[in-house]
Amino acid sequence: MPLAMMTRGAKSGSCNICGNVGPLTEDHTPPKGCVRPTAMELQHVTHRLDAEKAIKTKAQDGVKYRTLCARCNNALLGGRYDPAMIDFVNRVSVLLASNLVLPNTIPVPAKPALLVRAAWGHLAAVGVDRYLKGPRTEEWRDFFLDETLPLPVGVNFYYWVYPYRRQALIRDAGSLDIRGPLRAMYWLMKFYPMAFAVWMPENSYTLEYRDLAAYRTAGPDDVVDVMIDLEPIPHELILEAPTTTQAIMFGRDSVVANSRPPRGRILRV
């Protein structure tokens, strides 16, 4: 296990998304329009769960990874996909900050084809020199670069409300449900007010969260009502802490970060 989280790759190298070799740029993860960049402390997720390790890396201006080429970072993520994510999470933030009595489930208009690419792209930026993603590397690359392609088959894209201050950016985690046994690999991004999990099961292992894969046939600019469950609120450490039936294994690029609290409802456990 590394003693500190690496976020700054070489100034030139392979882009984590497209694989092209050249100058690399810094990607704010999550994007700046979703969270306010501020001084943060980063830890490996296992260090967060084991207070005795408590190895922290300082980030002065939010979590940034110098791992993406200018096209993937600026033209596609920043210029095309991030606006859909920013609009979506800002709408959810308004709901959480509202003093109105709202129903437990409420529709929020979104562009799911762009939203999933934004979430996936920022997770792909996590980790230095991490272009390779196993046998589906090129399939994921093509999905990101071509917004008309559907979400890869056999993948769930779960999302849920996350009204907590802590952020989590996790790549290459594995979950084993001992009742099955059921296995899945997953990527995870949590920040106020949403969590997103790219879930890649080996068998019929599913989770009980809403799934953006339900909109896999939506076109890039199709606006649909994405259902948001305001109640019940999932636990802060879902897919981070093991349970009595679930074992979790984490790769090297599994980061949690503490920052100043945003406005709105924040739960502490």
Which features would summarize this protein structure in a list?
20% helix, two-stranded antiparallel sheet, HNH endonuclease, 15 strands, nine-stranded antiparallel β-sheet, alpha+beta, 269 residues
Description:
This protein has 269 residues and is α+β, with helices and mostly antiparallel strands. The chain has one domain (23-258). The protein has helices at residues 45-49, 70-97, 112-124, 137-145; strands at 12-14, 21-23, 25-28, 40-44, 57-59, 64-68, 105-110, 156-161, 167-177, 182-191, 194-201, 210-211, 224-229, 246-249, 254-258. Strand 9 and strand 10 (182-191) form a beta hairpin. Helix 2 packs across helix 3. The longest helix is centred in the first third of the chain and has 28 residues, at 70-97. It is globular, with a radius of gyration of 18 Å. 40% of the residues are buried.
Continuous helix count: 4
Radius of gyration: 18 Å
- End-to-end separation in angstroms reads 27 Å
Structural class: alpha+beta
Share of residues in helices? 10-25%
The percent range for strand residues is 25-35%
- Low-pLDDT segments: none
The total strand number stands at 15
Number of domains: 1
Could you say which overall geometry the principal axes of the C-alpha atoms support? globular
The H/E string reads EEEEHEEHEHHEEEEEEEE
